[in-house]
Inverse folding.
């Protein structure tokens, strides 16, 4: 149980800089906090009750309208703590059997008030807050991006672009658009390289307007990784972690960067840090499993991690497919292929990674015809099915796809070449030439 009676002092939330507008949105020093509805409602309750404890019954009645479980409240508070950690001036204390209380870190509030503002946009004070509906739209778009399905990507893109058309100075929307571009570049490559360059240009305008916007440096590093500029990406990722040391997404992006740059043991540490900060994200849980595999951990340990992820996220399609994928890698059996086929029949390709995962599972478990059918149906110039081709011993065919993907200059190829399933490609006589092209811009040691 946390206890911070000494931190409350005489500073109330309003004096610390928190305000609630008539639409129920919370701002800190005139900057709107980007909180989903449940987290926003819980934070409003904590702000209004300060310095008193908010009971579980109050959360249930006022935020969940009576349909709340202890698990859903714990998840909400964990997400809220994560979202507020970047501010550095509050914490949420838990009181066993009672509820939660907001604590104002008085010393940090006073310390911040003594520090002159470092960077200010001359226009920022003149820019009106975006309409509440546009903020809600961006929150919904971010949730869609988390699903990482083709349909969700398309919906998110339309929403974000609509928000930007109506509120061109809303920097959160521009940051989300850049994140969308990075996600598409990594997961299905259904964009052009010029879109990555354009997104990086937009992020420079965000940097000028709101240099401390959470996620800015991390998404910048993510985009630079997508275009294989790993030297520049390293700087952005390190800045992201320095500015937001409790940002789970920053650790997650950094973990993949470390995989690309041949530092997989460190990637495991980064992914574990991400999971510790956000144990409710199935995407981060999958990232940890893949980092463990890339770090050449014992396959049994990797499988144990995949099983643990599934037990924590039993309803996540991505986690389930990841478990089947890991099972096929460790101990291929016909039953695993059958489970993968059944999953596709039930869920279609509900995640952007499903086709490459299922193709590998079938190939690894002996169903080469089924794997080849998926590869043909879901083909991509970015070589997304290299693991399946390698599992079938089709190394020349795989290398042909690698060469085509290398010419694009962006995408998921660095990751595909780093996973243990594709290790045999490194023995191909043409690999050295491809490696120099893909990994030519590595960080200085």
């Amino acid at each position: 149980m946390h206890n911070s009676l000494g931190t409350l002092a005489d500073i109330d939330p309003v004096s610390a800089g928190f305000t609630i507008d008539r639409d129920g949105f919370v701002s800190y020093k005139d900057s709107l906090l980007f909180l989903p509805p449940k987290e926003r409602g819980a934070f409003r309750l904590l702000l209004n009750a300060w310095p008193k404890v908010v009971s579980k019954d109050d959360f249930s009645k006022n935020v969940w309208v009576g349909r709340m479980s202890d698990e859903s409240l714990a998840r909400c508070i964990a997400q809220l703590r994560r979202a507020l950690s970047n501010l550095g001036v509050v914490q949420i204390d838990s009181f066993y059997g009672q509820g939660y209380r907001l604590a104002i870190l008085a010393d940090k509030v006073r310390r911040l008030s003594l520090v002159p503002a470092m960077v200010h946009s001359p226009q920022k004070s003149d820019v009106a807050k975006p309409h509440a509906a546009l903020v809600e739209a961006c929150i919904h778009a971010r949730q869609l991006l988390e699903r990482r399905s083709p349909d969700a990507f398309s919906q998110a893109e339309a929403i974000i672009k609509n928000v930007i058309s109506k509120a061109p100075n809303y920097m959160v929307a521009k940051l989300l658009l850049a994140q969308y571009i990075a996600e598409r570049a990594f997961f299905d490559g259904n964009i052009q390289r010029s879109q990555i360059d354009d997104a990086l240009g937009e992020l420079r305008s965000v940097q000028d307007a709101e240099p401390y916007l959470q996620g800015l440096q991390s998404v910048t590093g993510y985009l630079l990784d997508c275009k294989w500029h790993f030297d520049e990406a390293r700087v952005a990722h390190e800045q992201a972690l320095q500015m937001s040391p409790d940002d789970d997404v920053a650790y997650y992006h950094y973990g993949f960067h470390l995989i690309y740059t041949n530092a997989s043991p460190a990637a495991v540490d980064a992914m574990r840090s991400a999971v510790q900060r956000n144990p409710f994200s199935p995407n981060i849980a999958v990232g940890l499993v893949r980092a463990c595999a890339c770090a050449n951990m014992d396959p049994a340990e990797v499988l144990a991690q995949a099983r643990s992820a599934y037990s924590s996220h039993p309803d996540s399609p991505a986690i389930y497919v990841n478990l089947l994928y890991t099972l096929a890698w460790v101990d291929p059996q016909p039953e695993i292929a059958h489970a993968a086929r059944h999953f596709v029949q039930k869920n279609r390709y509900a995640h952007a990674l499903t086709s490459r995962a299922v193709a590998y599972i079938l190939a690894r478990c002996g169903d080469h015809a089924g794997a080849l059918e998926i590869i043909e149906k879901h083909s991509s110039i970015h070589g997304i099915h290299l693991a399946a081709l390698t599992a079938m011993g089709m190394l020349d065919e795989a290398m042909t796809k690698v060469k085509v993907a290398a010419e694009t200059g962006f995408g998921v190829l660095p990751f595909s070449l780093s996973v243990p399933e594709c290790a045999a490609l490194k023995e191909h006589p043409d690999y050295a030439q491809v490696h120099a092209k893909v990994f030519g811009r590595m960080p200085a040691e």
Notes: The two ends are 42 Å apart (CA to CA). The longest strand covers residues 90-95. The chain has three domains: 5-117, 128-245, 326-445.
